[in-house]
Design a protein that fits this description.
Layout: H1 2-39
Length: about 40
Amino acid sequence: MSQKSKSFSPINRPAIRNYFIFNREISIKSKRNSSKNIES
């Protein structure tokens, strides 16, 4: 069990970090798009 979680966590952490970075980029893009819509 412990061996499985050890092998799982190094793979899992970067995926979670990439997921949050991906979400942040999407939210920034959507904010830019909404501000463009307000300006126009």
